[in-house]
Structure formats: structure tokens, C-alpha cells
């Protein structure tokens, strides 16, 4: 769990161990920044309406981000 008294630039991005559907990438982003994980997931799915490498970015994050 992230300590929200820590400045945002000092928080470490990690994959969530508790809030995950696939790999915990979106749950970890939500935990790190204090956002609602459902909102992060909805925005990610909505981003598929725009052109871009969303799935590739997700898999790269899955590989790079450590487990929290």
C-alpha cells in the first residue's frame, strides 16, 4: 500500500498484488497515484477507440513493473 504522505515523485510504480484482473498493472497504477482502479480500467478500455499501441504498452509495463 502506498503512503500518500510521500511526495508523488518519490512513489515507486508497482504491480498490485491484491487489485488485479490480468497482471496487476492497472491496479498498481491506481494504487501508486491514489486513483480509483475501476476508473483506470475504464479509461484503458476506452483508449482502444483511439489509435495506438495500448496492448503493447500494457505488456511492456507487465514485464518492467515489479510486483508490489
UniProtKB/TrEMBL annotation:
UniProt membrane topology term: Single-pass membrane protein
Pfam families linked to this entry: PspC
Domain Phage shock protein PspC N-terminal positions: 11-67
GO cellular component assignments: plasma membrane
Keyword vocabulary terms for this entry: Cell membrane, Membrane, Transmembrane, Transmembrane helix
Residue ranges of the TM segments: 42-65
Compartments, as annotated in UniProt: Cell membrane
Main location, first listed in the record: membrane
Statement: the UniProt record of this protein carries the keyword ATP-binding: no
Protein name in the entry: PspC domain protein
